User: Fold these one by one.
Assistant:
Number 1:
Amino acid sequence: MTNKEKVYEQLILLSKKVELDDTNQGVTAIEISEILKLQRNVISHYLNELAREGLAYKTNTRPVYFLDINIKKKKDGQEVKSSNDPFTKLIGYNGSLKEQVEQCKAAAVYPITGLPITLTGNSGVGKSFIANLIYEYAVEKGCIEKDAPFVTFNCADYANNPELLSANLFGYKKGAFTGAEKDTIGIIEEANGGYLFLDEVHRLSPEGQEKLFLFLDKGEFRRIGETGSWRKSKVRFIFATTEDLDKVLLDTFRRRIPIFVEIPSLEKRRINERVHMVHSFYLNEAKKIDKDLVISKNVINTLLSIKGNGNIGLLKNIIIASCANAYRNQLNNEVLEIDINDFPNKIKGSFQIKQNFYSENMTISKNHIIEEFPKLISTDENSIIKEEFKNITKLIQQFNTATIDNDKFKKLSTASMNKVLNDLSFNKTYIETDIVTYQLVFKIVENALSYIQQNYGIKYYGNTSKLLTYSVIMLKNISITETIRNFDFKYYEKILKKKLSKSYVIAKKMDSLIQNSLDYNCGELLIGYLTIFVNSFLLNIKTNCNAFIVAHGFSTASSIASVANTCYEEFIFEAFDMPLDVTTATVVKSIKQYLANLNTDKGTILLVDMGSLNEIYTELKNVITGDVGIINNISTQMALDVANRILNDEPVEEIVKKCAENNKTEYRYYEDPKKKSAIIVTCISGLGTAEKLREIMTKCVGDAEIEVIAHDYNSLVNDIQNNMLLKSHDVKLIITTTPLVANGIPVIELQNIINENGEEAIAEALQGVVKRKRLEDIKDDIIKFFSLQNILNQLTILNPNKIIDEVSKIISNFEYALNIKFESNLKLALTIHTSILIERLVLRDAVTSHPNEENFIKCHSDFIELSKEIFSEILKEYRVEIPIAEIVIIYEIISSRVKIK
């Protein structure tokens, strides 16, 4: 129990005495301070928080009096309503399950029909209980009617019988199958207006998932055996599973469920919440058997050490069994004493006491008087934070070895940081401090964030200052950090500097501002913590190019950088001011030190106010990798122009050339003598598909020192001579869905990537850049990930098996109509392209214009009509239309390989 909870409990107890004494005005901080032996200002701080939260009433007198808000309402003759939030029945709703509860509430109140939600977690963690709470919450908030149905359906009962599943889900018409003696409604209709809870959804067959996601899309269905008009039903869905969703659910089905809530296992819940469960379950049994209970401290410590399968369900069953055995053996006793011998035989000895949390027995009254839990001997309340720190260090290692990419690292590290911050916010036993210290640290953190916002344009919102204050205080606590300090921080710092260089620069500046103002030192750990925090919550990096402003004057460079950074709300420029009494050599030294913390592979741009551009490059070239551009005569207008082009991801040479022309000044461009190796992936249907193919290829190459880049097909083909990407990189290979010629650069078509020619091209491209992952392993991964089935699985939201059949029919019709037998490589190219095309049509993301469209309409009207006829069936099925531009692309794919008459 936190100090705040203890203060609130005492306020309730003392307020009840005030209720009976009309001469008593209320409770003072001093009264509670004397009881709890805590400082008066700490008590006052918590009482004021309770007043702000609406849990306490505060007078405007001297001294200040406080009352429990319910007692105050009673004294004023107001009706006291109990909490209307059903989730308050869930232990941990405002603690370790706070984030999960918020997600459940969001799904329930989303306009019109709510959002489908999936609850994941091991057996016994409480998924069914939470599903009921979601339903109750929706009723309470008026999202559904009070008498709305809540229907539960266990998919495991029909795992091997898809026909029976469909009959139960959608109902059936009389005579639809043997035994169908009357029209029968399904649970989809039964749940109309309410909730349908599908438990063990992983047991749904692919066919069942497909039928269900079609209903999720349209809200329409037919009973088995029905034809004609469609039926409608407004159903809210809750799904539950114990399995890994990526392995058991179709991508197409999973993508229709926007909210996934993971319920943690019992062993991952906080100690105080597990104590609450033990107390609550024993209290329920005390009321049932009408007996007071005394539970042995060994029983409590054993129950708090439970791990493995069963979770809350197992805990509850053990408690019920122990009460039953004690009741049988002590039938005539007024008070039942429960010890280890009352555990079921198969449980005895299977759990060991891992830690003595309690030093005394727990007494529970059947009359449910407010009781204080026995005090903990020792707790590991910091376990969540320690565990998440370990997770983050593992993620850093995986990020460094390219086991995970930047997006995955940010997603996973942000999830870990959220757990840390959530624990800091709602479990403050290890960060409690006096209010003066808290306010001091808060002010220091606030100043650091204000400096970062003013100079780097990085906005901070909401509780950022409060959360960082908790973090700084937490990192001071040796009991938290001593186990974390065991890892080699220097090793991780090098990785963070290289991989998250901009976040690291901001973190280092904040670390300096904070620690220089504190009267204690958090050590090097704070820099790493802040780097992850900045990367997760403050920085939204849109570019990897680095840019600097170097200008004479006390704050000229800082002022210009601040304007540009603030304007675009992005850390683009770092500033180096050169006061007149500071030598150029000193400033250059500072720039070198700064560059040592940056990854400059993506290019560097320097804006300077005067001096020799060649001399500046000569001084810095040894610490910069990648292309370098320098522009003279810096101005605010020039900085904004450069910033805009950096955000648009233009190449360094193009940026400095155009900006120098626009601002009528000189520039220098120095091409990186060591161009970074690259593989380009391109697709005629657009960047979206190319980007997805890039993700697949990036997985395959792993930590090889080569960049995989998605590029627009038309811009690559139309001006290949002047393509800036080809100039700025050492392009080893181009992977394309449609043939192209690229000035001596090897080109391989996607459908050929897993044959002998593809293997040779890949081996050649990766020569000299492979690191830990062997070339043979990369080839194996390419075969695995670039098989037709895998490509379609990752590129389409539709059922790949169904799509392949539909597309095969389309291709056959083209062969028949054109009187041409397509070679296998053309068939494969068309299969991939057409499958992706259908997905884009469904998602309303089709290509709507083509540079050759007008001429194509004049010359190939027959092909347009033919294509519309061939696609008519599938267009009707998905209720979409195919633009002329998409037909042009199909024509180009076919005509690039065969001659169309």
Note: The first helix runs from residue 3 to 19.
Number 2:
Amino acid sequence: MLDRIASRLRRWRRRFSRSEWMAQLLGLPTSECPPGDPGLVLIQIDGLAHPQLEQALAKGRMPFLKRLMEKEHYHLEHLYPGVPSTTPAVQAELFFGVRQAVPAFGFMMRESQKLVRMYDPHVAARVEEKLNARCRDPLLAGGGSCYLSLFRAGAARGEAHFCPADQGWGPALRDASPWKVLLLLLTNAWSLVRTAGLVVVEFVLAIVDCVRGVFRGQDLVRELMFIPTRVAVTILMRELCTIGVKIDIARGLPVIYVNLLGYDEQSHRRGPRSAFAHWVLKGIDDAIARIWRAAHGSDRRHYDVWIFSDHGQEQTRPYEREFGRSLGEALADALSDLPGSPEQYPSKGRRGIDLERARLFGSEWIEKMTPDEGGDEHAGDTPLALAALGPLAMLYNLELDGTERAQVAQLIVEQARVPLVLYRTDPADPASAVHGWWAHGPVKLPQDGPALLGANHPFPDETIADMVQLCSHPDAGDFMMYGWCAGMDQPLTFAMENGSHGGAGPNETHAFALMPEDIPPPNPERGHWRPEELRATARAYLRGLNPATARPRRAAVKTLRVMTYNVHSCRGIDGKLSPQRIARVIARYQPDVVALQELDVLRERSGGLDQAERLARLLAMDVHFHPALHLEEERYGDAILTHLPVRLIKKDILPGPPNGKSGLFNPAADEPRGAIWVEVEHEGQKLQIINTHLGLSKAERLRQVDALLGPEWLAHPHCSGPRLLMGDLNALPNSAECKRLGGHLRDAQVAAPDHKPRGTFFSRMPQARIDYIYTSPDFRVERILVPGTELTRQASDHLPLIADIELPTGDGDSPGD
């Protein structure tokens, strides 16, 4: 009854949803699928390193993310983005499973001999064309959408928003009739007012920051250029993307990707540790909260939300500011005696990343005001070129005329003062050895990798391997120049910026993944993710496989964790039928033994699925099921799942109402009730566990309790020693039924130290305590959990009840004695 009321309320709320209205008015297609189908929202916080996120959480700048970790069982994981640590490389690995799709953000395309940047639409399209040739199943294929991505990644035309090669559903908005546009504006008036207010605040802050920057010696033109870019990225793009993602959630798209850029933009300009960069995180945290609530309120799919970053940033010093000249000028001087060396290298990157972002949002007028020395107009004049955008620079097509590569690398380090230079001994042979030069002399990889990265690098082995592999990239330079290596106080960047990424530094290669508790890293011993592993896990989740539910059990040895859970035929209060969601609830808490009630097996109302078998398979547990109700092939009853050695002792029907009295007004009162008894072995001890689900009438429950306490069950000679009785008793703690049980067993919620008993029903407002774990006196209850997360409040009309119980010592005394 209560779940039907909740479902009806959700349907009415959906009718008044602004996102639903916008999708309908714009004529956007919706996904037709069963409401229990999985959906996934991938939220990327661009440029936020794991250490910076920890600092932001500690200082209260991201309260919603902290709430996810404390209340919703998310866990913070390390993520290694690879080298180059750039957005296009990470997105290519996430979307297509291809590592090192590009050697840097700006590089020379060997096929055209032109310097390019990944923000150029034709460049992004060309790279994606190559990726599609290598991968036939991009992550967003099959109905996904993306926001602020460099690649469409399989998303249909019109579903890639604010991306270089697609207009998103902007044409639908332009084609809409004036009255529809007016209605959209009216229904989103508060959002518009809110966004306008944020733009004004951000604009004022940007002006103040601009003045401060000029007083600190920054270039006035660059500071003015940064103001519209900052406002556009920090506020407008964030708000538009948030609104768009909520619309796509209302449409029920299977997978949605959004890239939130604000922090990365501020970090490039002021540094990743700056107050202005961290101030932006508050707005990003609020946007994530709105997306998360929309996802968990969806009626069309069961959405999960994963949050991660693509890379971090290093606090850097611009090379040009440090040495008073650009890298191109320094190289021209250092290599002036080599044949064919020009006075100035055609290059990319002197203007810095801020102008690239400005061009993305249509600020071409800024580009006309700021000449690009050695820019596009020179790119095709000579094959000799320098790509220098960030802490990784690449020198192409330098004519050596017999000069040793080691000598060139030495000149670059000693005269141009570049910290590290790497090269292949034979550029034509991708398998040739990688050598290099740094301040301490020649190096060879991978042998000298630990010395180059230092003892404190978070991912030394992976980083060294990627640095070696990057030298073989078809579009990599002949000489790879890094702005950081071990022993430097602060890395260098070859662009005019104070925060930088793209190289091999310890912060830029240290991203994060904030994941639900039941989705651990694929390799727990290694302890971190790679983008391609996020992709594989996402694909498994979207196919309904979710192998991560079968995660390793808890490390506790002596403590037994038991759970009782009425799963309501795996139908949540949102009306969605989802055994997978129930499995996720169970997996998050890693119980040793699970007592489940109200399971359907081959019933038409639940799609003919064997729910007991399905849950056991998802959780990698053994299962014993007892059908209290058996109608032809359809069955309905209770089960015990465990990963421990288990033996079925008994399963049977309990007595019904006295004198054959049935429920005149409640057909459920006529349901037969049963119990199932198993023996499990844990730490060499045998434990007797009984799971039951009692009837709805008091008289019936009293008869059933007497039966359970009698010689067929708890008083049976074989049911001696440590015993547990778990289940949904449909009775309150002060009832005669519970008092009768309490005369022989202990109520775990009452016995637990420093615990106030909590209700488990109804899950949205759990006031009634009708689910119980009773223990024999020789157990000691250590801890009780009644998790009231968004997932548990939706998955069933009951909350799970979990107890950590210390086993008897085996000497005949209670462990508490």
Note: DSSP finds 26 helices and 33 strands in the chain.
Number 3:
Amino acid sequence: MKFGHFDDDAREYVITTPKTPLPWINYLGNQEFFSLISNTCGGYSFCKDAKLLRITRYRYNNIPYDNNGKYFYIKDGNTIWNPGWQPTKTALDEYECRHGLGYSKFKGVKNGVEANVLTFVPMNDRCEISRIKVKNTTSLTKELKLFSYVEWCLWNADDDERNFQRNLSTGEVEVIGSSIFHKTEYRERRNHFAVYSVNTEVDGFDTSRESFLGPYNGNDTPDVVTEGKCTNSVASGWSPVAVHQLNVTLEPGEEKSFVFVLGYIENDENDKWEAPNVIKKDLAWEMLDRYKTDEQVDKAFAVLCDYWTNLLSKYHVKSSNDKVDRMVNIWNQYQCMVTFNMSRSASYYESGIGRGMGFRDSCQDLLGFVHLIPDRARARIIDIASTQFEDGSAYHQYQPLTKKGNADIGSGFNDDPLWLIAGTSAYIRETGDDSILDEMVPFDNDESKATPLMNHLKRSFDYIVNHKGPHKLPLIGRADWNDCLNLNCFSAHPGESFQTFGPSEGPVAESVFIAGMFVKYGEEYAQLCDLKGDAKEAEYARAQVQEMYDAVLKDGWDGEWFIRAYDAYSHKVGSKECEEGQIFIEPQGFCVLAGIGVKEGLAQKAMESVKEKLDTKYGIMILQPAYTKYHLELGEVSSYPPGYKENAGIFCHNNPWVSIAETVLGDGDRAFEIYKKTCPAYIEDISEIHCTEPYVYSQMVAGKDAKFFGQGKNSWLTGTAAWTFTDISQYILGVYPTLNGLQINPCVPDGFGDFDLDRTYRGVNYHIHVSNPSNVQKGVSSMTVDGKAVEGNVIPFDSSAKDVTVNVVMG
């Protein structure tokens, strides 16, 4: 069942009913100011940091779901409605939401009044623009009353929802004309405030939530809107809001437009002034002056649209498969931008409070983002590396505003160090900029301990070398990629208290998954050593990689698949010897994509086992059989009900690993089959089952053991976005950036046909045509570059070229 449709020409998803299975959201903003907005106008805004600089308030885990947003109420006689349906939920004669790239549009029609709302964050400005156009389509004059509504958050979103004894006395606002200023904490911080303004004179306002709603009402039935008149309340403490009232007369056929701007203003911290409670409004007036007219708004919107057109042109495919083209050219890359900006911090499943930027997460996000804006990728790598410790381990998360590691979460996730090599390697392969390796980067943000980034990568590599267990496999620490596989948490004897052992004390657990990572990214580290002319270090690295390769074959193979790990007792996890959890997806995908067992014939067996034991119609499950009882020695993984999350759920994040592994083996049919099962464009028709947005990837889908098999959760902010784009763009379509140039090596399904691909790489525009006259799944028989035949399948890089024509014949 569909609840909308794709409009590929407009690059929009069109939602045709407000009653979607879950709120279907969009992200606005690309730099510092961000908003989340749902298909019914729910959501919130923040600047830089969703925890520390939250501008508007949102209520998670509330009834009804998706509670609080930026609303417009229209009062037409006794009828009150919203263009986005919520919060009044008045039945509309027409409804439409169009989520586009960095903007959303809403259309509501009721009783001959049509309201169209365009909401977006302009480029390089700290504000959100919402333009509402109201039109009278009847033959009678309409006397309407239009009310805006936002509720201010008191900046620190965590403190805002807990520290009521203080916060209910701190709210401060100031109203000047049509501008409502939120200056809570300004006397304390003296450097920032927010404003909500409209580009016309108002007929009233309210800034007290109680005055606007009434003491016992929700935002579905505000007293002020019901009565049709604002109270001009000025909040002092309690819960400040921003409400404008506009009395609108529309003659038959007449349309009027109003521009609302929600802005964040930050003064120079060194700017001191005498009156601490008097906000400096000059910057606010300058911002509001930029968006006073429809012409100004249209121009800003055009700049945003052009920005995305230029950005997406860097990788663009034209094939006979419209779903592939749709996802590759628009939605997958768009989601990669969002995950780069947000990491895992702020979504409808992440509150923006608990998690900041993830070390592992952000490194993986780079894989799908680095081709879009390399300079931002470079800066992110430096930020991430700055949270690393001198021994090569790292804070698992850091806050985007302060760039400081999250001490509450700490470190000990032993896959983290290798992801830094992965992200840095991806950046250098994309850009050729090896100067980043000489960039001085601190440990733990202590500038006195700054060292070249290359040294950080060596510490990452050596951390694994120096932290191995009895099988010469990497120690897992607190966990590896699977945060819930806590193998060093156990009770040694019945009746003893629960204990947690660190990576170097007590019994130690080992990870075959990290071993697979080490083989892949250890070789990429060695290649960077070659690039820097350090032959001795490259030789050392490859020797260590070979030792790990051998250790996996010796103690990481279970006969038909790779085992997952050894627990703290050196018992196998993910083995046929186990009663539950006999096979896990992670080592199958990553060991094979790293090349382990390919020449020995083991990789093919592992892939066959995945298909036989883990595959479902909705994707590949993370493990089987599901855990039906709690295993203290395994930690959180067995605490979930069977079929959900890490306990046999379908983790979309690591499905691409198996798809890539199949391309390594040359099986294009199977690689593409796996790709399609989690790809939004291919499962749009089952939205009533899948529930999450049909235009972006979800983190997980309920597995076959779950009651709601096939139901998605945790959409948008997931490594699935970057890894799936890596899978389809670099392995299936086969345009892979190497240190020496673009490698063309597609692995496509039977009947995929010819395709054309434009790829911008290191400032050169490549126009690639791939023909497949023999309908093979993998293999390149010939390649010409600007009409000249070249050996192999790597395009020699020529920095002096501007446009290069490449013809590839598979065979």
Note: The mean pLDDT is 95.
Number 4:
Amino acid sequence: MRVVLLLIRVLAIATVTFSIGLCNGIPGWPPLCKKSERQALLMFKQDLEDPANRLSSWVAEKGSDCCSWTGVVCDHITGHIHELHLNSSYSDWHSNSFFSGKINSSLLSLKHLTYLDLSNNEFITQIPSFFGSMTSLTHLNLGNSAFGGVIPHKLGNLSSLRYLNISNIYGPSLKVDNLQWISGLSLLKHLDLSSVDLSKASDWLQVTNMLPSLVELDMSGCGVDQIAPLPTTNFTSLVVLDLSFNNFNSLMMRWVFSLKNLVSLHLSGCGFQGPIPSISHNITSLREMDLSNNSISLDPIPKWLFNQKFLKLNLEANQLTGQLPSSIQNMTGLTALNLKGNEFNSTIPEWLYSLNNLESLLLSHNALRGEISSSIGNLKSLRHFDLSGNSISGPIPMSLGNLSSLVELDISGNQFNGTFIEVIGKLKMLTDLDISYNSFEGVVSEVSFSNLAKLKHFIAKGNSFTLKTSRDWLPPFQLESLRLDSWHLGPEWPMWLQTQMQLTDLSLSGTGISSTIPTWFWNLTFQVQYLNLSHNQLHGEIQNIIAFPDSVVDLGSNQFTGALPIVPTTLFWLDLSNSSFSGSVLHFFCGRRDEPYLLSILHLGNNLLTGKVPDCWMNWPSLGFLNLENNHLTGNVPMSMGYLHKLQSLHLRNNHLYGELPPSLQNCTRLSTIDLSENGFFGSIPIWIGKSLSGLHVLNLRSNKFEGDIPNEVCYLKSLQILDLAHNKLSGMIPRCFHNLSALANFSESFYASSFWGIDEEMVSENAILVTKGIEMEYTKILGFVKGMDLSCNFMYGEIPEELTGLLALQSLNLSNNRFTARIPSKIGNMARLESLDFSMNQLDGEIPPSMTNLTFLSHLNLSYNNLTGRIPESTQLQSLDQSSFVGNKLCGAPLSKNCSSNGVIPPPTVEKDGRGGYRLLEDEWFYVSLGVGFFTGFWIVLGSLLVNMPWSILLSQLLNRIVLKMYHVIVEYV
């Protein structure tokens, strides 16, 4: 018996040892990995681009077991490769570690491969047709790997497939000509074709209806626009259906609601209209229904929805108006209700607080008003509550503190008042809190936060709170996001911040801090991706800025002094504007030549910086926005600035720069804004501006020394909205092709500069300065809608071309202080959007065109000091202007005090009869006659006595010239 037991033990040990040998490979045992399959993987790797060397374990060394390689899974008994996991993640994309290159057909040697995942890579090629020969596959995931072209029909040969994902959210166009090849995949349970172009596959519904095993179907964003009727619904096993973001523009189809096993339904952004269909049978399995971004009507809500338990209903952005439909209160099984982005304009009804199964209530961005009822405390299950972007007012009821399950609360952008902090302290489960942009006020102490140990995100900017804590306060939380802009935190630096070791988002703009930045603070910024300390009174010098890669650092509008700090090359956004940084910029820009800077947005304007513009721009290849305005920089614009191929906005205004513009700037073809005003640039305006910089929206060369004609190539700038060439030495005529500036001619064409960078609209630094209505105005948030042209104070001549009146969208036009002649264009009234018009100090003649009465938006007009004649046309707009708009001409009629005769001309001097039947001039006229006689007599008496003394005669003539000029101006003013 003992021998038998011993034999059994020996066999057991041998079996286990053999199994381990199969799994791991040991000397003396055959290798687990098949040689042919190992060789196939090595060939596959050769064509693959792997910048992060993720496949470093794939080596050809003898004894290397491919079953232990990254991403490879083998059968533990046979040793054949069963699975390849070569997908990439978000972190891989963030670090450029995704796979690309070619897919080698050596994969065909993996005869036993059942699972292939190549998703989230960047192959940018067609899907290999040989995939259709890998008939052992049950799982094929090619989703979001930038495949393009037509999906090969041979994939229909994979009759064993259970899972197929060919989604294409980010890549080039991936399309099909029909979907018949899918009909052979009878075992398919999961099909994802999201963002694949199915516009030619009119049979999409009939084909997918033939897949009886289908459990999940995702065809979102596929460009299909027709839904054929379904006589019979075959895919009754369907659990998840997503047809979002197709353009059906119809009533909702009834067959969808005949799918009794349906759990999740996504029909967002399909253009559906009308009511939710009523059905005769009950659906009890539905747990999620997304009908957002349509035009769905809730009148009436079908009764079958009242029976749904644990339903999440999304009706966001459906243009719903008026009061919240009262029938919603019958949907007692609702666990989530999303009504965001509609137009409800009522108070919050009392019945809403009776839906005590709600875990998520999202009502943001409507026009809801009134106050929150104390009944809010009945929603004991509520975890997510969003009221942001409404007009709710009054204090927060104390009963809100009863929502012990609340995790996220957003009431930002309303009109709440009071303190509210007492209520916050009761919400112990709270992780996300946003109370920004309300009218809260009062003192907040550390006691208010004593129970908020789970708080991660605290956004409270735009209120008037005052935070008072002890210097040694230890907050109970570890925040990731903190935004307290406009709070009263100063003047001392908040020392408790040094305890917050998990911060990735910190904004303390405008909080009254007036100290230096402590050294320990920079130790926190290793992981901070968004740092905003702007609009304080921070002072002192900054030696180094330490920041997380790709982060935003805004220290603008403070009182920093000294040289510019050293910054990391991986920074994305840096704002050091509106301070007192001084010294040369050379070290900042050219101090490190060993690696390129990744900075995209740099604002150093409004400082005291000196020295020449650096000549090392080849180290800044990512720069898209550069602002150096209002400093003391000198010298030329260097040629190396042409290396800034991504540059979209260049601000060098108000420095001491000079020279001609370097031709290398034409390489910056993405430029949208150029502001070189208030400098000493000279030469002609380069013709390459029009040829190479076709995307320009703003061109400001004001107050320089440019000369010559305006080149006709400027007319190529179809997107130009602001053109300022004033105060230069330009000559020649206005190009007649200006009517080709289509952005100034068309009302619809405009660029939206304030979302230019797409991060945070409060931080966007894009701006432009335009002199309009006689005032210098700076435009930022509405810059995209401003359209103006200023050619004033030059030496331009000729007539104002009639073609200029084709700029129908122009709001401001200034041609003053030039030498323009002839008449004002008769069609000037076509420019109906004009708000400011200045033709003063020219030599224009003729009458004011009657069409000028059409300029109903005109609030500033200056036609003074020309040779205009006749009556001022009558309109409410023109007669409401000041007399100074018309002086220095021969005009009559209101608003001038000079009346016109019946034929519209200035009447002759007034005379009256004397007592003997004769006529005499008025006393004013006799005054000027006697003045002239006296001057004539005195002039010759003095002149005769000085003729013999030439030096005195020269001095006298100079004096008389000055007197005559002064008298001329006085007389012109009087007349």
Note: The chain is about 10% helix and 20% strand.
